[in-house]
Structure formats: structure tokens, C-alpha cells
Design a protein that fits this description.
Number of strands: 0
Number of helices: 4
Helix content: 55-70%
Largest sheet: none
Structural class: mainly alpha
Distance between the termini: 64 Å
Length: 126
């Protein structure tokens, strides 16, 4: 198991000054999460990222609407960029990025409901 939330890095020195991980420098977001949540938490986090990417690709190929396909493609590219950036620094978890990340998760989950042939995406010419 991990050390707990805010137990490493500068946060550990501030909130848990006597903890053994306090002051341990974590540059990678995955390392920080592994130290705080343990290997079990890290596996769950990686599974979440994998399922999100898999859902984007799966629904991209099942969609028939080109507008929705473009939205899935854009979200998959943005999600992939955030997941790769999280390796080098803490990219997912800071306040502006996490709002974008959770909004993207919600859109990925709900966009498949808009792929209905009865919904008119383009304006009809009169």
C-alpha cells in the first residue's frame, strides 16, 4: 500500500513533516501516485487511462457521423497527450488540467448517445 495522500515531496514536508516519504522529490505524476496510493492504486489508475483511450478508439470506429468522429479523434489526441505528459511531470491533478480531464471523461462517456441518425447535425437548406 502507499504512504497516503500528501505524504511525499513538498506537500509531505508541509502536511506530514515526520513521514518517511516527506521531501522525496517526485517529478513524474505516476511516481507520485505510486508513492501515495501504492502499486494497487497505480494499476487502477493505468487501467482507467487505458479504458478511456479504448473507449475513444472503439466509439470512433463505430460512429457513423463525421462530426462525432472528429470529436472522438480530438479527445483521443488530447487524452493521449495528457497521459504522456503525466510521465514527465504532474500534468493530471493540477487544478486547470483536472477540470479539462474530467470534462473529457464525461464527454467520452456521453457522446455515444448523440450518434443517433434522427439527430440533425447540419442545417437543412431552404
Amino acid at each position: 500500500m502507499g504512504g497516503g495522500l500528501a505524504t511525499n515531496g513538498v506537500e509531505g514536508e508541509r502536511y506530514n513533516p515526520g513521514h518517511e516519504l516527506a521531501g522525496f522529490p517526485t517529478d513524474s505524476g505516476y511516481l507520485k501516485f505510486a508513492l501515495e496510493a501504492g502499486w494497487i492504486g497505480l494499476v487502477i489508475l493505468c487501467l482507467l487511462y487505458f479504458v478511456m483511450m479504448q473507449q475513444c478508439v472503439h466509439h470512433y470506429y463505430r460512429s457513423s457521423n463525421p462530426t462525432i468522429k472528429a470529436l472522438y479523434c480530438a479527445m483521443a489526441a488530447a487524452l493521449f497527450a495528457q497521459i504522456v505528459a503525466h510521465y514527465g511531470q504532474i500534468a493530471i491533478g493540477q487544478m486547470p488540467g483536472i477540470l479539462f480531464f474530467f470534462a473529457m471523461m464525461a464527454v467520452i462517456g456521453r457522446l455515444k448517445q448523440f450518434d443517433d441518425p434522427n439527430i440533425a447535425w447540419e442545417e437543412e437548406e431552404q
